[in-house]
Amino acid sequence: MDEAEVRSLAAQLGHPVGEEGLKVAEAMDRTNRNMIRTAIRALLPLEGKTILEIGHGSGAHIDEMIQEHTPAAYTGLEVSQTMHDQARKLNAIRASQTNFLFYDGTRLPVSDASVDRVLTVNSIYFWKEPGKLLGEIARVLKPDGILSIGIGEKQFMQTLPVVQYGFTT
């Protein structure tokens, strides 16, 4: 890959757009699958719980999570219109159990102490203000709530050419 292609891929990883964004999301669904499952296991039990996911991507994992763990409700937040639309499409059968919202990447559009579990996988690299967003997560989590953050190991992430363009590692 030349530098322009690496920059383009980095931009798509942080904010997937259009047909290229859908292709990147499909690849992310495959490569992130185990990390997503591991991050979800850290939140167990989920039965009857409310889940907030920050940066759900295409949402290809959501149906499986709901089938296996029967949460009371799932809310997904995205900054990407393409991912928002794709997640709604892929999870249309779960429309009564899911809610997909846009957010600005900083302020969570969720009430104080209203969420049992917060999940985010491979999105923290793109947070504009990590400290502020972590404060927002603390605000929306119930007192006994759990946060699960899935990330790649720093040593591994720094070997990837894309991380020099818009990633925080």
Task: Describe it.
- With 169 residues, this protein is α/β, with parallel strands linked by helices.
- It has one domain (3-156): Rossmann fold (3-Layer(aba) Sandwich).
- The protein has helices at 3-14, 18-41, 62-69, 81-90, 130-140, 154-157, and strands at 50-54, 73-78, 98-102, 115-121, 141-150.
- A five-stranded parallel beta sheet has the order 3-2-1-4-5.
- The longest helix has 24 residues, at 18-41.
- The chain is globular.
- The model has no long low-confidence stretch (mean pLDDT 91).
Shape: globular
Helical proportion? Answer: 40-55%
The quaternary structure here is single chain
Number of domains: 1
First-to-last CA distance? 21 Å
Uncertain runs are: none
CATH fold node name = Rossmann fold
Task: Give the CATH superfamily.
Answer: Vaccinia Virus protein VP39
The major sheet is characterized as: 5 strands, parallel
CATH architecture: 3-Layer(aba) Sandwich
Highest CATH level, the class: Alpha Beta
- On the 0 to 100 scale, the average pLDDT is 91
Q: What is the number of beta strands?
A: 5
Order of helices and strands: HHEHEHEEHEH
Strand order of the largest sheet: 3-2-1-4-5
Estimate what percentage of residues fall within beta strands.
Answer: 15-25%
Count helical runs. 6
Q: Radius of gyration over alpha carbons?
A: 15 Å
Helical/strand content category? alpha/beta
